[in-house]
Fold:
Amino acid sequence: MATYKFPHNFLWGAATAAYQIEGAWNEDSRGESIWDRFSHTPGNISNGDTGDIACDHYHRWEEDIALMRRLGLKAYRFSTSWSRVLPNGRGRINPKGLDFYDRLVDGLRAANIEPLLTLYHWDLPQTLQDEGGWDNRNTAHAFADYAALMVKRLGDRVKYWTTFNEPSVITFIGFLTGEHAPGIKDQRVAYQAAHHLMVAHGLGMQSIRAIEPDANAGIVLNLWMSEPASDSADDLVAANKFWDENETLFLDPLFKGYYPPAVYDMVGKNMPKIQDGDMALIAQKMDYLGVNYYSRNVIGVNGKVARIAGSEYTEMGWEVCAPAFRRMLVRINNEYSLPPIFITENGAAFEDEVGADGKVRDPRRIEYLKDHFIQTRLAMLDGVDVRGYMVWSLMDNFEWGHGFSKRFGLTYTDYAAQKRIVKDSGEWYAEVIRKNEVEESVGAG
Ligand code: IFM
Structure:
């Protein structure tokens, strides 16, 4: 039985996002966000769920910090709600919103938990959407001002800043399929929005650096390994094309300063308007790259994602394939000159239930996490500089279009009673953190 030891300062933690856990959507002068508008529109979310209450974290943050302590987390990745601190996206500041994040950060510091703050996890203030949202370049400037406000207030205690979470999901699901807020289906808007997100990232980086030159600043990308369905040359070409259209679309501008030719081929006249200086702004040096990894795409000649017979799939319909995680990390490490990496999300949704004994047995999640931890360690031994790992998620929460039907948590959320029950995976993870090592074969229960 092999044991995989991690470096002594490896930052083990868990992640959440504001709209998915906070609730209190209209309390203490919070403004409306595009996710409030979207989830309040019938037909958009499974079961008519909304984030109005979610995990009620806005009121239960102290209890949630106690939960983090119980798990022994060394770090906690969360996002701030733009419309909670700037109800109209710009202009009038909401002191109560800032106070909330102030208390949270102080609480984390007091618990010796490193805060990793994400400025944008998809919840644009609705007033900015009404002015065109990410299709309007002014939104990027509003973002830079919002970033500056947050860094001024919290920069003395928050050392890790992320501009954006998963620009690809914002682009493709928010603006191409329309399954996420703001629910737009328009290729031109999608790619213009993608570019404005990149510009906003660059401006946000400048805001952070101007106020806290020593802060660690970066972005979080959602990277799915792309692999061919067979050994044929055609499948390999198709898989690489898929990778370019989805992953290098953001990796290339951020780390090479240009959009990949494959994207120009695909998007044609709908390529975004790019102003002089944009690409240098976007490609400015970052202190880290956040990588969210869940699964891979296996691509056949038709360019479609294939389902693999015999593979395990999660409740999201995502294949479980941990070795592809290592291959992906090694691939990006070889193809780009990267700063250190944090795994900013990794986890799986399974059908969890509370047993008669009050416990939540989730052996498949333990196996999933164990295998992904090991593949990360192996990638590190291959030379990839990974500094920390945030499991998605601290607790079950609002899974966007799926509402509360998908459970990713290390902790089970009983939404009716607003109770948190640490799952077996949470107990197991606490042990991994305590020992700073992963054993290959665990009693998965
Ligand atoms: O819940 C999401 C999170 O908001 C962004 N990354 C993927 C997670 C699971 O779908």
